[in-house]
């Protein structure tokens, strides 16, 4: 049995680092932040439509062809999996995914739904 650096014993699995439940949550939080940063580096760090770049928290990854649902089925559910896909397939990601701010993404959704 492996153990976390805090001393708690942990079961090793393919996905999890050797951390206990408590530190696994912390690990995932950091992992998600890091992978999101890298995805922004791949796709750009400003809104493609209006150029908003003041705060990354208001920027979203949008599927250009509105095929996000289908794509999520391919890569698996969970935000980090999609981000990991972007980082692993930068050329394909640039074709399929764009960065929009929350406002532009909401407007794009509304327009798409109205058609
Ligand atoms: Zn621990
Ligand atoms: Zn925008």
List key phrases describing it.
115 residues, alpha+beta, 5 helices, 12% strand, binds zinc ion
Give a verbal description of the structure.
By secondary structure, this protein is an alpha+beta fold. It has one domain. Helix content is 53%, strand content 12%. The chain is built from 5 helices and 4 strands, in the order E-E-H-E-H-H-H-E-H. The chain has helices spanning 21-43, 68-75, 79-88, 90-96, 102-114; strands spanning 2-3, 9-10, 59-63, 97-101. The strands form 2 sheets. A two-stranded antiparallel sheet has the order 1-2. A two-stranded antiparallel ribbon has the order 3-4. Strand 1 and strand 2 form a beta hairpin. Helix 1 (21-43) packs across helix 3. The longest helix is centred in the N-terminal third of the chain and has 23 residues, at 21-43. The model has no long low-confidence stretch (mean pLDDT 90). Bound molecules: zinc ion (2 copies). One zinc ion is lined by residues 4, 6, 8, 19-20, 22-23. One zinc ion (ZN) binds next to strand 4 and helix 5.
- How many domains? The number is 1
Helix content: 40-55%
| Spans where pLDDT lies below 50 across 5 or more residues | none
Assess the beta-strand content as a share of residues: 5-15%
The mean pLDDT is 90
């Amino acid at each position: 049995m492996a153990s976390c650096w805090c001393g708690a014993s942990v079961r090793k699995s393919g996905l999890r680092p050797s951390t206990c439940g408590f530190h696994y949550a912390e690990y995932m939080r950091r992992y998600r932040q890091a992978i999101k940063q890298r995805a922004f580096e791949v796709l750009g760090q400003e809104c493609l439509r209006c150029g908003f770049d003041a705060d990354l928290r208001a920027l979203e990854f949008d599927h250009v062809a509105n095929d996000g649902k289908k794509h999520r089925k391919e890569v698996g559910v969970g935000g980090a999996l999609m981000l990991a896909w972007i980082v692993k397939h930068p050329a394909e990601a640039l074709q399929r995914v764009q960065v929009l701010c929350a406002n532009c993404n909401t407007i794009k959704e509304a327009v798409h739904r109205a058609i």
